[in-house]
């Protein structure tokens, strides 16, 4: 057993975990933050993306002990305290960038990382960045449209496709 301590969504969190405990399992089982999903167990789908020290990571590929001392942000920490959706979440809702919602937390967290890195990505840049996130419902068109809208870009050309 190992003691881990980290800041998750701005709040201190610590627990004793087995050395093999994945970060996604720690977040879901120890902290009750079930927004990060385990979709594939092979790091292929991106449903488990969180931010660790400001970088997007697939939390199914990282041990909780590797995040010891880190700042971790999950989908639960993206909305305002009163529940108001952030810009990315609101764009996904407004432009139908989600259907079943299973991939949405990972998509939103990946989008936040992309927009931090590249505030006005092109359609091609968005598609390339999201290569590690799988969605089985949307066909990605509305996800791309949502991301472009969240970045403040004109989506009328995309809407015509």
From TrEMBL:
Keywords: 2Fe-2S, Iron, Iron-sulfur, Metal-binding, Oxidoreductase. The keyword Iron applies. CDD domains: fer2 (cd00207). One of its GO terms (molecular function) is metal ion binding. Gene3D superfamilies: 3.10.20.30, [2Fe-2S]-binding domain. Residues 2-78 form the 2Fe-2S ferredoxin-type domain. The keyword Nucleotidyltransferase does not apply. It comes from the Bacteria. This is (2Fe-2S)-binding protein. The lineage of its organism: Bacteria, Pseudomonadati, Pseudomonadota, Alphaproteobacteria, Rhodobacterales.
């Amino acid at each position: 057993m190992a003691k881990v301590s980290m800041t998750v969504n701005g709040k201190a969190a610590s627990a004793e975990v087995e050395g093999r405990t994945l970060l996604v399992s720690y977040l879901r089982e120890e902290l009750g933050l079930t927004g990060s999903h385990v979709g594939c167990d092979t790091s292929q789908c991106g449903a488990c993306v969180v931010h660790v020290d400001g970088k997007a990571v697939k939390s199914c590929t990282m041990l909780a002990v590797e995040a010891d001392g880190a700042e971790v942000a999950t989908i639960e920490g993206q909305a305002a305290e009163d529940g108001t959706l952030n810009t990315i979440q609101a764009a996904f809702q407004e432009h139908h960038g989600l259907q079943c919602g299973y991939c949405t937390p990972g998509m939103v967290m990946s989008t936040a990382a992309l927009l931090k890195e590249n505030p006005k990505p092109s359609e091609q840049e968005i598609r390339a960045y999201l290569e590690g996130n799988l969605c089985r419902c949307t066909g990605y068109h509305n996800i791309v449209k949502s991301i472009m809208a969240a970045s403040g870009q004109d989506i009328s050309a995309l809407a015509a496709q």
